[in-house]
Write a structure and sequence with these properties.
Shape: rod-shaped
Strand content: 25-35%
Number of helices: 11
Organism: Azospirillum melinis
Largest sheet: 8 strands, mixed
InterPro entries: LysR_HTH_N (IPR000847), LysR_subst-bd (IPR005119), WH-like_DNA-bd_sf (IPR036388), WH_DNA-bd_sf (IPR036390)
Helix content: 40-55%
Family: Belongs to the LysR transcriptional regulatory family.
Protein name: LysR family transcriptional regulator
Keywords: Activator, DNA-binding, Transcription, Transcription regulation
């Protein structure tokens, strides 16, 4: 028994005739008779009586017709309800945005979601990138922007942009003045202020150092981007950031940077969500808005 058979049965009862029901349902009369026979076999009883005036339901057939009409009404209502969820996304959606991207993404995303889908309850979680992967995999975040080039098991990712990493120091630092780049080996010899593991820039620097068979000189570990930049501006050490991040914020005028060379270190930015967990309609709508915002900020794999 399936919903189609129940619809066919209701058509027979409504029209009082298999031939008229077949015309109305646009089903061949022999096929409709076969569906009725199978339905009677499923229930183990006769559902209609054939009379000179047409087809009339038995007592069992009348009970089935009443319940079938209610069930089909509920099915149709459920279909409309589900379609409405897709048409008008509602409910929670949680997005993780690294601190370095928050200034250019959080407010535009919140405004766009609020204006386009006011029934979505958006939550934006900002922080250093290291925990974003764990939070997406655990279900605490529906989607997040993450850094890295290594294989990320359990995640589906989309490339957002790539950017070069720079050694960043105080604006008046004589070591960086008048140069166009700094060798990676020289950068490693300097006292660095970096976030702790597993944050993205720390892992990228250490991975590059491992390939170069060198070690990283970490003077301070600070898991807070603006505080790292403030300490560098005060001359407490150097850090590694993208030029985009170094040039943003209250300390930007007190910092300077050089691209790292030999080898160049690139940071890959990805938009990720859990591969084995379907996103809700609210999360999918938020994902679409975030993707649109990111496409306006990037070009040819880099930032505009």
């Amino acid at each position: 028994m399936d919903v189609r058979q129940l619809r066919y049965f209701l058509g027979i009862v409504e029209h009082g005739s298999i031939s008229r029901a077949a015309d109305s349902l646009r089903v061949a009369q022999p096929a409709l008779s076969l569906h009725l026979k199978r339905l009677e076999e499923d229930f183990g009883c006769q559902l209609v009586l054939r009379t000179a005036r047409g087809v009339v339901p038995t007592e069992s057939g009348r009970r089935l017709a009443q319940r079938a009409a209610a069930l089909i009404g509920q099915m149709d209502g459920l279909r409309d309800e589900v379609r409405a969820v897709e048409a008008v996304p509602a409910g929670p959606a949680t997005v993780g945005i690294p601190t370095s991207l928050g200034p250019v993404l959080t407010v535009p995303l919140a405004l766009a979601v609020r204006r386009t889908h006011p029934q979505i309850r958006l939550r934006v979680v900002e922080g250093l990138s290291g925990h974003m992967l764990e939070w997406v995999l655990s279900g605490q975040l529906d989607l997040a922007l993450v850094f890295g080039t290594k294989e990320m098991g359990g995640l589906e990712t989309e490339l957002v942009a790539r950017e070069k990493l720079h050694l960043v120091g105080p604006a008046d630092d004589p070591l960086l003045r008048g140069r166009s780049a700094i060798p990676f080996a020289e950068a490693l010899s300097l006292p660095l202020i970096l976030p702790g593991r597993p944050h993205g820039v720390r892992e990228e620097v250490e991975h590059a150092a491992l390939l170069a068979r060198a070690s990283v000189t970490v003077a301070l570990e600070i898991d807070a981007l603006e505080q790292i930049k403030a300490l560098v501006a005060e001359g407490c050490g150097y850090t590694v950031l993208s030029d985009r991040v170094a040039r943003h914020g209250g300390t930007a005028e007190r910092l300077t940077g050089l691209p790292i060379a030999d080898p160049q270190i690139d940071r890959t930015i990805l938009l990720a969500h859990a591969a084995g967990r379907p996103m809700s309609a609210a999360a999918r709508a938020t994902h679409a808005i975030l993707t649109d915002i990111l496409s306006g900020l990037t070009r040819d794999g880099g930032w505009r």
